[in-house]
Write a structure and sequence with these properties.
721 residues, mainly alpha, Leucine-rich Repeat Variant, two-stranded antiparallel ribbon, 64% helix, endosome
Length: 721
Amino acid sequence: MNPEKDFSPLTPSIVRALNDKLYEKRKVAALEIEKLVREFVAQNSTAQIKHVILILSQEFALSQHPHSRKGGLIGLAACSIALGKDSGLYLKELIEPVLTCFNDADSRLRYYACEALYNIVKVARGSVLPHFNVLFDGLSKLAADPDPNVKSGSELLDRLLKDIVTESNKFDLISFIPLLRERIYSNNQYARQFIISWILVLESVPDINLLDYLPEILDGLFQILGDNSKEIRKMCEVALGEFLKEIKKNPSSVKFAEMANILVIHCQASDDLIQLTAMCWMREFIQLAGRVMLPYSSGILTAVLPCLSYDDRKKRILAVANVCNQSLMKLVIPEDDEVADEGKPGLASLPTDTDQEESLSKQEGVSGGCLDTSGDSNFSSTSVFMPASAERLQVTLNLDGIVQVLDCHLHDAGAGMMTRIAVLKWLYHLYIKTPRKMFRHTDSLFPILLKTLSDESDEVSADLLEGGPREGPLLRLRTHDFSLQRPGSLVMRLGRRGAKGSMECSPTTPTMNSYFYKFMINLLKRFSSERKLLETRGAFIIRQLCLLLNAENIFHSMADILLREEDLKFASTMVHTLNTILLTSSELFQLRNQLKDLKTPESRNLFCCLYRSWCHNPVTTVSLCFLTQNYKHAYDLIQKFGDLEVTVDFLIEVDKLVQLIECPIFTYLRLQLLDVKSNPFLIRALYGLLMLLPQSSAFQLLSHRLQCVPNPELMQAAAAA
């Protein structure tokens, strides 16, 4: 510093003391400056005050000499003290050089800068608020300072500034949010702690509505929640919990839509705490916003569905994800299907203030924290909280996006069992609520649903068929057809009698629509290509179809398709499977009774259709004749067996037939053995089977049965008596 330079009105002694390396001397100089400035204030000499501040800033605080900078800082603080309530007029000039020293390489100088700013802010109080952003920016840097003394000084200044903000009603939140949004992404732990502490303070001030700007900082908050420091994570949990409490109290002022995608992202986080917290928020959003969340359904499902397969290690996330999934499903209503032809978005009803109060009162027992993972929240019905002045809210169900997500999870080999089951339940629900819109996805969904029958999980394949109270998604998917004359109507004709219309039908199955017939064709193709599926689940699948749909149509269509099957071995195996189901399943009791008597044209037509395909397997053909009491034809067929190649498989099937004859299903047949005169061909057919069998347990069983047949002469004598 040039000693000959004129620093007036500062005296040479003050200048020397400000440049001294000893703190005591610089302090004496500061007292002199304070006295000098007080005189200028008394004289109302604004020019002189500005000149003193300018000298202290340019020549000292911003000097290249470290001791001069220290002197300039203490001098500026002295000016502020002397100015008192008038310091607000000069704050820009006082603060800027001090903040510049926050970046100094000397930790002692950074500490003195912090001390000087503390004194300036303490005097100015609320007048510093217009300069809050630059102060916050400087403090956020000092919060991460490696020197403990500097950090301690910055904490004192930070507390002072928080007190000022808390007691003032002039805080400019709008201008602060961009800075907060920028700094919230800091990776430094101390900076994060500083940010969270300020968010908590601002949230606690009644006159500051930080909730309006939550979409700006929510993503950053969730990132801080993943910090390695337990203390910071806990602070962030508290902050998020306070926001969630505020959301529940004032849902009408919440920008749910702007935060939905943020939650979707963090619901997929690898960090358990982030994922659990985001999922809890998502649960509350669906509950509070209702159908407002529908446009984000595909993203929500992308995040939620994988969580449904979590094990006990993540059972809290699993529990909340289940609630989210069920609640979101309830938002899809039939009205979402009705707007398909109108090209208009759906309408979500908005409750009155009374409705809001009632719904909120039901949630009083629910914890206000963001980690409330209980399923006890009121999810029985979903309500939408919006201003009472708004009567209708336009929302759109992105069905294409939802179906795409569901389809991806079905194709994902790594998806868990419960995830796949949830996907099937969603498809079933969508076909129930929005059948017209889902109709266009039928052809694309059907192959993967059919493939799901081969799922390694029995629960998944069972749910594919059962799905809901009557039909699973695979059946729903093929039960829908639409009349061109009535585009709004839905006709469910899978396996049920209905109008013939203009649908493409099999000539021999006039009551079945084309989709049903295609379904049967594809199902048999699946059985043909995956013999293990036929062996392990074939009977179960067919029994479920017969239970849920029309058993007669099931057998009629399969028999008709098998009649044209080129793979004769598969046709024989499939016929044997169908025959076993027909003769043993309780679900087919009515169909068996229908075939037993052949009293109606329909039953006779069914018998003829079955017979043609049953001829793929000689033994099953005989069993069908036994079932329908065509004993003479059964005897004629057995006579022809002598011309066939008798293999081990053939004998095994005969063995099984003998076992079936001893079952309750053929009780009527065994009783008919008493009437020898009326049923000679039945006895002959049974003896024919006996002659085919080698000496085995089945041979002994049938032989013992035939030994019980009464002597015709004795029966005639008894009748004569």
